[in-house]
From TrEMBL:
One of its GO terms (cellular component) is cytosol. The keyword Hydrolase does not apply. Pfam families: Response_reg, Trans_reg_C. InterPro entries: CheY-like_superfamily (IPR011006), OmpR/PhoB-type_DNA-bd (IPR001867), Sig_transdc_resp-reg_C-effctor (IPR016032), Sig_transdc_resp-reg_receiver (IPR001789), WalR-like (IPR039420), WH-like_DNA-bd_sf (IPR036388). This protein is a positive regulator for the phosphate regulon. Transcription of this operon is positively regulated by PhoB and PhoR when phosphate is limited. This is Phosphate regulon transcriptional regulatory protein PhoB. PANTHER family: REGULATOR OF RPOS, TWO-COMPONENT RESPONSE REGULATOR ORR33. Residues 134-233 bind DNA. CDD domains: REC_OmpR, trans_reg_C. Residues 134-233 form the OmpR/PhoB-type domain. PROSITE patterns: OMPR_PHOB, RESPONSE_REGULATORY. It comes from Marinobacter nitratireducens. GO terms for molecular function: phosphorelay response regulator activity; transcription cis-regulatory region binding.
């Protein structure tokens, strides 16, 4: 089945360059020059990868990425940015981007990143268990339903983003096991963003704010100082 790549880029030259490269890889390309209309197209469905500029009219790339990550399911996001500061890269990753390229970039590098993202998606799909084989986890008032991807705390449903759910489910399936930040990036994000382990901290803080009665003294996702995190045993 032909994959469809949504390109949200307002620079006509760069947008056309990316579109041509996607087409050369045998994929269908959809090019949209605005953040808001690009997000509308994503929500229509059928998108397998989003290539997203950081600076866009209508809605900036970070906001678009945040909305994509709050949607059901998982679609990889490759962020393009003219900025090269560490803060910009970290913000992109913390909003849910899977990878980024700093402009100017080579066509060969763009193709390599696209192929790598799809290899990671295929690898995650191949090792994912059948939903029907997964059982609910219920512990101390927290209930996690992996089939419907729903979470309840004291019978009240909690809305999690796709990445937050994947992080919580990974913890719950390995109760008591300690994971480093690098291990969590590899297991939940699909590969390790070297040097950006602190994006895990951000997601865990958001997760705690949603599922813990007292996020400062968490019951479920616990910190193991100097090592990483674990789910309550």
């Amino acid at each position: 089945m032909t994959r469809t790549v949504l390109i949200i880029e307002d620079n006509p030259g760069i947008g056309e360059l990316v579109r041509m490269q996607v087409a050369d890889l045998g994929m269908q390309a959809v090019l949209i020059p605005r953040g808001d209309t690009g997000l509308d197209r994503f929500r229509e469905g059928g998108i397998d990868l989003v290539i997203l500029d950081l600076m866009l009219p209508g809605m900036d790339g970070l906001s678009v990425c945040r909305e994509i990550r709050s949607s059901p399911g998982y679609v990889p996001v490759l962020m393009l940015t003219a900025k090269s500061t560490e803060l910009d890269r970290v913000l992109g990753l913390e909003m849910g981007a899977d990878d980024y390229l700093t402009k100017p970039f080579s066509v060969a590098e763009l193709a390599a990143r696209i192929k790598a993202l799809f290899r990671r998606v295929d690898a995650l799909d191949s090792r994912a268990p059948e939903p029907a084989q997964e059982e609910e986890v219920v512990v101390d008032g927290l209930r996690i339903d992996p089939v419907r991807r729903r979470v309840f705390v004291d019978d009240q449903e909690v809305e999690l983003t796709a990445r937050e759910f994947e992080l919580l489910w990974h913890f719950a399936r390995h109760r008591g096991r300690v994971f480093s930040r690098a291990q969590l990036l590899d297991a939940v994000w699909g590969y390790n963003h070297e040097g950006y382990e602190h994006t895990v901290n951000t997601h865990i803080n958001r997760l705690r704010n949603k599922i813990e009665a007292d996020p400062a003294n968490p019951r479920f996702v616990q910190t193991v100082w100097g090592v990483g995190y674990r789910f309550m045993d």
